[in-house]
Specification:
This protein has 376 residues and is mainly alpha-helical. The protein has one domain. It has 12 helices and 3 strands; from the N terminus they run αααβββααααααααα. It has a 3-stranded antiparallel sheet with strand order 1-2-3, with no helix packed on it. The longest helix is centred in the C-terminal third of the chain and has 34 residues. The relative contact order is 0.15.
Length: 376
Amino acid sequence: MGKPQQAKKSTARPCYVCDYTLLVPVLLLVGIGVAMIYSASCEIALKQFGNEYYFFEKQLIFAGLGAMVMLLIRFIPYRVYRPLTYLFFIVAIVLLSALLINGVGQSAGGATRWLRLKGISFQPTEFAKLALIIFMAYSLAKKQDRVEELNIGFLPHVLILCLLSGLIILQPDFGSIVIMWMLAWAVMFAGRVRALHLTVTFLMILPVAAYLIVSSPYRLKRFMIFLDPWRYPLDEGYQIIHSLMAFGSGGLLGKGFGQGYQKLFYLPAPHTDFIFSVIGEEGGWLWVLIVLGLYLIILWRGIEIARARTDFFGSLLALGITVAIALQAAVNMGVNLSLLPTKGLTLPFLSYGGTSLLINMVLIGILMNIGMARAK
C-alpha cells in the first residue's frame, strides 16, 4: 500500500475573514459622510427643526444600522439570491406602483419618490436597483447557451427595463432611469449579449431620450443650464454656479471643517445632492482626491472579485453591484462639477439618506460574500 497523498491545502479564504480592501474604504466614506452631513446641514436643521444635530443624528443611526446589516449580509451565501430573483422583482414592482397611490407616496421637490409608512420614509427606486442587478445576473447566467439570440439574451431584459422605467418616470426620476439603463447595458455586455444588439438599440434610444428632454420644459431648461449655467444665475443655474464657487474657493487644502460658506442657504441640498461641493470647499482638492481614491479602490476590488469568480451568476452579480455604485458616484460628482446635467442623485455612502445608505451597504455585503465564497 503506497504512502497516502497529502490533501491539498485550500487557497480559499474562510467566509468569516473580512475583505478589508472593501470594508475600509466603505467605512471611511461613511465616516466622512456623517461628519460632512453635520457640517453641511447644521444651519438648515437649526432653522427647520430647532436642532442642529437633526440630520447628523439620523444619518449616524443609519450608518450604524447599515454597518451591522453589511456585516450580516456578508455571511449569507450569494447563491441564495438566485431562487429569490423573481420575489425581489415583484416586491420592487409593488413598491414602485404604491407610489402612484394617493396618500401613500410622499412628494418633495415636485417628485413623488418616497413611501411613508408609520413615520418611516423609504425610497423604492433604491430597492428596484438591487432587484434589477440580481435579475440581470440570474437571467443572463441562466441563458448563456442562447444569450446571443435577440429574443433570448436581449429583448426580455429590455422589456424589464421598460417596465421599471415606466413606473419610475411617473415619479418622475429621470436620473435613476439613466443609471439603470447604463447599468443594464454594462451587465449585458459582460453577459455576452451581442454587441450589435446593444449598439443598434442604443442608437435607437438616443432620439427617445432627446424627445423626453425636449418635450419637458423642466428637463430642457436643465439641459440648457448645463450648457451655460451663467446665463441663468438667479434661476436653475443658481445651484451649479454656487457648486462651482464652492470648489473654486476651497482651493487645494480647503477652508477647514465647518468653515464653508456656500452651504449657508446658498447651495441647495448641501447635505444630499451637493455634499461633494461642501467637501470641495471645506476639504479642498486634497479631500476631493481622497474621496475619489476611496471610490476607485472599491471599483478596483469589485472588478477583481467579478473576474475571479468561476460561476457566471456570481461574476455578473459582483460586476452589477460595482458598476451601480461607481456609476452613481461618477454621475453625482459630474453634476457637482458641472460636467453633467443636473440630476437628483445622491453620492453613495456620503449623502444624507437612509434608504440609499442601507441599500448600498447591502450591496457591499453581497459583494464581500462573493469575494470570500469558495468556488464550487
